Amino acid sequence: MNNKRIGLIGCGAMGSALGKGFVQKVGIDPSLIYLYDINKERMQALADELNAQTTENLSELVPHCQHIFLAVKPQDLESVLYSVKDMFNQQQIFTSIAAGITIDYIESCLSYESKVVRLMPNTPCLIGKGTIAISVGENVTSDEQEEVEALLKPLGLTIRLPEYLMDAATGLSGTGPAYVFLFIETMIDAGVSVGIRRDVASEMVIQNIIGSALMLRENDKHPAELRNIVTSPSGTTATALQVLEESGFRHCLLKSVIEATKRAKELRSV
Questions:
Q1: Where does a domain end: 101, 136, 164?
Q2: Same-domain status, 204 and 252
Q3: Sequence-distant contacts of 110-113: CB under 8 A, at least 24 apart
Q4: Tens digit of pLDDT for each residue in 205-216?
């Protein structure tokens, strides 16, 4: 795999994370990485950082790469696909991170014999701690899927899902870091409101999140069991949790994931 050329269409945050992972963690020779972005400054900045190849147009990238990663916004994907449909062969693998855009749709734009992989990553991929849901089209072999997963491994945890769950993965995991960041922001503000200095509150809350997540990872216990351990009768935790329940915290979070999932489905028609 290490001698196969990789094309990266889109050099934004997630595209850059992919490129850096390929070179810095997987060990791909940067001369085998071809970049394209309509924003030439952004493309050149990533190329300079990685020592990768820049291209002036898609015809300089697509015919030469075995793996082509589509790291563009959902509303821009269609034009990219129609631009490249006459440039590729059936052995190349197209991997898309565009939310809401189905494998069937991508195949309809390229060819129903094309090899298509669909991903839903999240922003912690930028530091190698992300979650990446992956589904593959019928023309992708198991060896090819493993090849793609090997490229993604440095970015975090890869989870195989049937494609009908990819919109749900978008609502839960792709959007998930924003829920966590908002929770952390609010907790820090709460710490300040009860008299703790902001920088100290920030350290406390972030460590709380890290420690709690690691406890879940290292235990077989359900989250409710760990929550009950710290909830004494009539204690401070019980009082706080009662307020959260009365305020609809659980309901709001459930609804947020459901609505984000619906929005992912709507992106197909945008």
A1: 164
A2: yes
A3: 110/81, 110/84, 110/85, 111/85, 113/139
A4: 999 999 999 999
